[in-house]
Write a structure and sequence with these properties.
The complex is a heterodimer of chains A (172) and B (443). Chain A is an alpha+beta fold and 172 residues long. Chain A has six helices and four strands. Chain B has two domains: 153 residues, 3-Layer(aba) Sandwich (Rossmann fold), CATH 3.40.50.10070; 258 residues, Neuraminidase, CATH 2.120.10. The chains are: A alpha+beta (172), B mainly beta (443).
Chain lengths: 172, 443
């Protein structure tokens, strides 16, 4: 009850600011973040996005190896499972290590669908690692869709490299 | 109540933002219906029209040429007109009349013009006064005319507005040019930002400066702000930004907050939200709070687009295996599949006329733009070029499409009539442009 009254008051304040309008436009822009869940975190400089912002291309492999996928697929094939088994062993030996699982796609298909596909790839990998005994709290996921490719030639070889899950170098 | 306040807030700001202080109908001549009907649609025989530079007073010479150039370019782009080359014009615009009783129409019928645009422009304090008139050359009378008072920065917009007016008079349907196109691009450096432009691309400018990845723009119904998804703070979150204003965080749930689209009435935002790998269509209120989920599925549901009545949403889903186009009620329910040809159909856009859906389909390893009736029948191929043609978006009048294409190398934005008869590149190539979104008519 108290909560709903508080919510109503917030909504009234937002409405009042909107009506009184233009002079305080910047202030409205600052205050309107009530839709978010506020889970902002400092950007990991070693992630593909962190590297991109520093003018560097994404990394391939690392201590945890990349996993590759067929076109428009988020299924793990035999070689993907082998790679993940080795990655799971490493994570079990380094019990405090945490990593972010990045889902990536090749350039074919639209931007939005590929972001969703990358999220599916990340989830497949995370679920499999958890099934092998890695605690899910140690694994976060993010999709970059087709936005951060390793290569940009229109060849099947390049597409195959870009259809990957990459692990951000683990940190404790 | 929150919704009402928000909407009223926009209303209050409107009078301040729109500086196009006045326009008025000009001249006694009624919009004669005589020529209406000679123009059937894009691709029909082009209608010959002359667009004379405006007669200008001191200080308005350049604007006089710009106005005529923009009107001529729009009419040409429409595919409905053959704009007669200015080199053939006999009358000197500075020494000839701009009203029906002072124009010698033989000077125009001789060069083949059936319609004629003439007018005048003068400086008035801080701004410009433009009088533009449309004449029926055969009948020798005025069939349309408008007077505009505008700032120099609005010249472009009133030229597009008058082109729309000409199309209204000669085709019975308002033209699509007083509108804007937004898209994502890497044209200035390595970062992907949101850009916006008029149809002539002469005012192409960056809207975001996130220095990250910004994508999937779409317009508010009034064409003054954009929704987009940005990785600026790490997580792909949904933002709104006013042109020339501040951006505002709308939704930053963990995972994708992707591809927001305002409902036609501006009361809700359809968006794709991801949680645990599954991406579903949800409706947000104008402050970014989830109102309800429209779809709930283990697979991928993305790229929502509203029906013009706001009752339904078309989207892309892989629930049947590969990506296909589905329609669902905005309140939820069982989606109905629309596309059955092709194994990979995506990025649907519902025509503002309501009758068709444009989308991209993978054929022989490349993407082409198609349209389909909302019932799933009458599939039409719009593009068949090399490279990929993706992300179609409809004009406000539903007669045209824009889409991205890599047919000339790097992605650029292309314009086409809805049948694909004539396709024109709008943006300079080399920008890696993608995901164009056409606004409704500007208010």
């Amino acid at each position: 009850m108290a909560r709903s009254i508080r919510m109503a008051v917030v909504l009234m304040m937002v409405a009042a600011i909107a009506v009184t309008g233009c002079a305080k436009k910047k202030r409205i822009a600052d205050e309107a973040a009530i839709g978010g869940t506020g889970n902002e975190e400092a950007l990991n400089e070693s992630s593909s996005l962190g590297r991109y912002k520093r003018g560097l291309g994404p990394e391939e492999g690392g201590v945890l190896k990349d996993v590759h996928f067929a076109y428009d697929s988020y299924e793990l094939d035999g070689s993907a499972r082998d790679v993940l088994a080795a990655n799971a062993e490493w994570l079990k030996e380094n019990k405090r290590a945490r990593t972010e699982i990045e889902g990536h796609c090749d350039e074919r298909g639209t931007v939005e669908y590929n972001l969703a596909l990358g999220a599916k790839r990340g989830k497949s990998v995370k679920d499999y690692l958890v099934s092998l005994g890695v605690a899910s709290e140690r694994l976060t996921t993010i999709s970059y869709g087709e936005e951060l490719p390793l290569c940009r030639d229109a060849s099947e070889q390049c597409y195959a490299r870009n259809r990957r899950v990459h692990f951000v170098p683990p940190s404790e | 109540m929150g919704l009402g306040g928000y909407r009223r807030g926009w209303g209050v700001c409107r009078s301040v933002i729109v500086g196009m202080a006045m326009w008025a109908a000009l001249g006694a001549g009624n919009a004669g219906a005589q020529v209406r009907g000679t123009i059937v649609g894009p691709g029909a025989t082009s209608y010959p029209i002359a667009v004379s530079p405006l007669r200008s007073s001191s200080g308005a010479e350049q604007a006089a040429g710009t106005f005529a150039d923009l009107v001529a370019k729009d009419l040409d782009l429409s595919g409905l007109f053959k704009v007669i080359n200015r080199g053939a014009y006999i009358e000197d615009p500075q020494r000839s009349g701009v009203t029906a009783d002072t124009i010698d129409f033989r000077d125009w019928s001789t060069i083949g013009a059936q319609a004629l645009v003439k007018g005048s422009i003068e400086r008035d304090g801080e701004g410009l006064i433009v009088e533009a008139r449309l004449f029926d050359v055969v009948e020798g009378k005025q069939i349309g005319g408008k007077r505009y008072r505008a700032g120099d920065d609005e010249l472009r917009r009133i030229a597009h507005r008058f082109a729309d007016e000409i199309m209204q008079i000669l085709t019975g349907e308002r033209g699509p040019f007083e509108s804007r196109i937004a898209f994502a691009s890497r044209r200035k450096g390595r970062f992907k930002e949101i850009y916006a432009m008029s149809l002539d691309a002469g005012d192409l400018h960056a809207v975001t400066r996130d220095g990250s990845i910004a994508l999937a723009p779409s317009w508010s119904p009034d064409g003054r702000s954009l929704l987009f998804t940005s990785f600026a703070s790490g997580n792909p979150s949904l933002f709104s930004i006013e042109l020339g204003g501040e951006k505002r965080l709308l939704s930053s749930r963990s995972g994708l907050n992707l591809g927001g689209r305002w409902s036609p009435g501006g009361r809700a935002i359809a968006v794709a939200l991801e949680s645990g790998g599954a991406t579903d269509i949800a409706l947000l209120d104008p402050n970014g709070q989830v109102m309800h989920f429209v779809t709930k599925d283990r697979g991928i549901d993305v790229s929502p687009s509203w029906s013009p009545d706001g009752e339904s949403i078309v989207f892309c889903s892989d629930r049947g295996g590969g990506p296909q186009i589905y329609v669902v009620g905005a309140q939820g329910g069982a989606p109905r599949r629309v596309t059955f040809e092709g194994s990979y159909n995506t990025s649907p856009a519902w025509s503002p006329k309501g009758d068709r859906i444009a989308y991209a389909s993978r054929v022989g390893g490349r993407f082409q733009v198609y349209t389909v009736g909302i019932g799933g029948g009458d599939v039409k191929k719009i593009t068949s070029t090399r490279g990929d043609n993706e992300d179609p978006s409809w004009s406000p009048d539903g007669r045209y499409l824009v889409f991205s294409s890599t047919r000339d190398g790097s992605g650029a934005i292309y314009f086409s009539d809805a049948a694909g008869t004539r396709q024109t590149r709008l943006t300079p190539s080399g920008g890696d442009d993608s995901s164009p979104a056409w606004s409704r008519w500007l208010e």
